Amino acid sequence: MKKRAELEGGYLLMIEDEPVVQANNKKMLERRGFCIRQAFTLAEAREIISKEMPRAIVLDVNLPDGLGLDFLREVRKTSNVPVLILTANGTDDDIIQGLEAGGDDYLPKPYDQTVFFMRITALLRRSSLLPEALGIGPIRINLASSKAYLYNEDMGLQQKELSLLQQFVQHPEEMLSPDFLYEKVWGQKMLGQDNALKVAISKLRSKLSSSGYTITVSRGEGYCFERV
User: Fold this and answer.
1) Quick one: CA dihedral 32, 37, 38, 42, positive or negative?
2) CB 3.0 to 4.6 Å from 141: which of 114, 134, 214, 226, for a disulfide?
């Protein structure tokens, strides 16, 4: 069970719609001690990660209910979880698109099972060099699980709130413009007035009420995360 320690009690999520591929990879990885969860659609994957972010993801590109790269872009808004793209799309352009979307590695099908296993373990070793958490005062953000804690209690943040908090914790006492925050959190430029940002910040400010920090607003300038 040596390799289970590499996941530190977490699990590896395999998103793949081909049952034979799922079965073969699951059997091989579990034999080496990995804890595996499976999703055959993007809807299943979203349901799984909404409860707990995996330590790593193996992602197919073409799935019954959408494109894996679109799902990957969603994940990258809030998490740096390592992702191996495993797909039949193997041209240079396909690989470039996968890496640009946020993939950490890319393995075209068909592939050797030993190579697949070594890619997974290498990915986990590299990811262990990245920071697993951010924190300030009593606030701590676990980047691996995409959860935020206040005095060691889960804050129960929605994904957009979590992404906003991450930006504020990384830029304390700085004035952040609405355009900057919107592009970082929603992944696109803000067109005109968008109440989604105001609503998300209002909810986050409320959940920070006992933290000793707040989010102040300066009309015409932006938002600042600072001590009360």
Assistant:
1) negative
2) 134
